[in-house]
């Protein structure tokens, strides 16, 4: 087996202090009891955090002042805003967050006519080493905690509710497509998914059908996720259908080849009933050739099935100084046509925020 220049385990750096969002309901009651308070205070605290989207104990006026002061230890600051940028007339807002140890992560909140969506990070940096990705170029700092992942969503939900996108909106969609490889931080990502999807007061009450988890193709983790009983959409960052090029574009391909990844995608679709999304960043003169479109359509039809898969073409958002560039529009259109000719659904993703460094890792790179 080929030796990989990849880091699947994050460096052993300290995670932030224990937070309410790190704990399941039973553990919350135990934590509150350890503070010398009755167990029902855990439910009250959770109702504020998950239901009212506040982490400020001073706003929890149904709690006695002394209890608020004590319970504040379960709501330590996790992700502090460093900078915020907006574009698309305020419909796209990118946040750069700093953890307790200085680690940086990003999220992007976006308004669409029928929904509000947040793209969140699962790691500070990324160890997958994809050369066209700004996050991959920066390397992996550490995993984010469950609480750090959930708090990105809570703050996005509060911002959308309070009109940050121009008018009050309810956050309904979450994509784990920010910094990091979610399935390389498996335990904490799955715990975060349970907090996000559980109804209040146990969680944020967001439907799993509005959540997408991306991966570069960690086959064993895909199979494990399929058995979790969480019908979230799986997005596989494939980027090319041939092993020779994918070994370079997505180095994890040296461990799990295209066929193995697509077989895992089929198993996931069968287990969850959810159509898998195939993410494909279209790069000029690299992976945009007509024969690759034909091969992609053929492989998806044969190994996954046309009813179980959808191709999401992504016009590349080039990073400063990069040799990579987006494919011309006629090339993009021909690629779409050829994939569709194979009977596979294929659309082009709506690009947002190019003028505010909205590609993963671009904003963090300017603040290192």
Automatic annotation (TrEMBL):
The active site is at residues 106, 360. Transmembrane segments: none annotated. The keyword Iron-sulfur applies. InterPro entries: Aldolase_TIM, Methyltransferase_A, RlmN_N, RNA_MTrfase_RlmN, rRNA_lsu_MTrfase_RlmN/Cfr, rSAM, rSAM_sf. It is found in: Cytoplasm. S-adenosyl-L-methionine binds at residues 180-181, 214, 237-239, 317. [4Fe-4S] cluster binds at residues 126, 130, 133. It holds the Pfam family RlmN_N. It catalyses: adenosine(2503) in 23S rRNA + 2 reduced [2Fe-2S]-[ferredoxin] + 2 S-adenosyl-L-methionine = 2-methyladenosine(2503) in 23S rRNA + 5'-deoxyadenosine + L-methionine + 2 oxidized [2Fe-2S]-[ferredoxin] + S-adenosyl-L-homocysteine; adenosine(37) in tRNA + 2 reduced [2Fe-2S]-[ferredoxin] + 2 S-adenosyl-L-methionine = 2-methyladenosine(37) in tRNA + 5'-deoxyadenosine + L-methionine + 2 oxidized [2Fe-2S]-[ferredoxin] + S-adenosyl-L-homocysteine. Coiled coil: none annotated. SUPFAM superfamilies: Radical SAM enzymes. The keyword S-adenosyl-L-methionine applies. Keywords: 4Fe-4S, Cytoplasm, Disulfide bond, Iron, Iron-sulfur, Metal-binding, Methyltransferase, rRNA processing, S-adenosyl-L-methionine, Transferase, tRNA processing. Its cofactor is [4Fe-4S] cluster. GO terms for molecular function: 4 iron, 4 sulfur cluster binding; metal ion binding; rRNA (adenine(2503)-C2-)-methyltransferase activity; rRNA binding; tRNA (adenine(37)-C2)-methyltransferase activity; tRNA binding. GO terms for cellular component: cytoplasm. GO terms for biological process: rRNA base methylation; tRNA methylation. Belongs to the radical SAM superfamily. RlmN family. Specifically methylates position 2 of adenine 2503 in 23S rRNA and position 2 of adenine 37 in tRNAs. Reaction proceeds by a ping-pong mechanism involving intermediate methylation of a conserved cysteine residue. This is Probable dual-specificity RNA methyltransferase RlmN. It comes from Pseudonocardia dioxanivorans (strain ATCC 55486 / DSM 44775 / JCM 13855 / CB1190).
């Amino acid at each position: 087996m080929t030796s990989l220049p990849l880091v699947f385990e994050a460096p052993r750096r300290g995670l932030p202090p224990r937070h309410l969002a790190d704990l399941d309901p039973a553990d919350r009651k135990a934590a509150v009891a350890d503070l010398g308070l009755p167990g029902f205070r855990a439910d009250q605290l959770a109702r504020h955090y998950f239901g009212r989207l506040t982490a400020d104990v001073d706003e929890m006026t149904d709690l006695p002042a002394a209890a608020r002061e004590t319970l504040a230890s379960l709501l330590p600051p996790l992700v502090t805003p460093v900078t915020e940028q907006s574009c698309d007339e305020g419909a796209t807002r990118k946040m750069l967050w700093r953890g307790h140890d200085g680690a940086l992560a990003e999220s992007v909140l976006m308004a669409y006519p029928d929904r509000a969506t947040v793209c969140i990070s699962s790691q500070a940096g990324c160890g997958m080493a994809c050369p066209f990705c700004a996050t991959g170029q920066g390397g992996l700092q550490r995993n984010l905690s469950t609480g750090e992942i959930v708090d990105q969503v809570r703050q996005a939900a509060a911002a959308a509710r309070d009109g940050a996108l121009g008018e009050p909106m309810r956050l309904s969609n979450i994509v784990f497509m920010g910094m990091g490889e979610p399935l390389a931080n498996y335990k904490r990502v799955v715990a975060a998914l349970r907090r996000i999807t559980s109804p209040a007061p146990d969680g944020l009450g967001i439907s799993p059908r509005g959540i997408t988890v991306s991966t570069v193709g960690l086959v064993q983790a895909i199979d494990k996720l399929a058995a979790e009983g969480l019908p979230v959409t799986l997005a596989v960052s494939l980027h090319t259908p041939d092993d020779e090029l994918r070994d370079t574009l997505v180095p994890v391909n040296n461990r799990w080849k295209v066929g193995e990844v697509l077989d895992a995608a089929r198993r996931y679709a069968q287990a969850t009933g959810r159509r898998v999304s195939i993410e494909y960043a279209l790069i000029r003169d690299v992976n945009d050739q007509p024969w690759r479109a034909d091969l992609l359509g053929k492989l998806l039809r044969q190994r996954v099935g046309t009813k179980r898969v959808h191709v999401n073409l992504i016009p590349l958002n080039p990073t400063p100084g990069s040799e990579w560039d987006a494919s011309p529009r006629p090339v993009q259109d021909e690629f779409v046509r050829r994939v569709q000719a194979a009977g596979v659904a294929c659309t082009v993703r709506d690009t947002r925020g190019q003028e505010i460094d909205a590609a993963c890792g671009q904003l963090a790179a300017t603040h290192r």
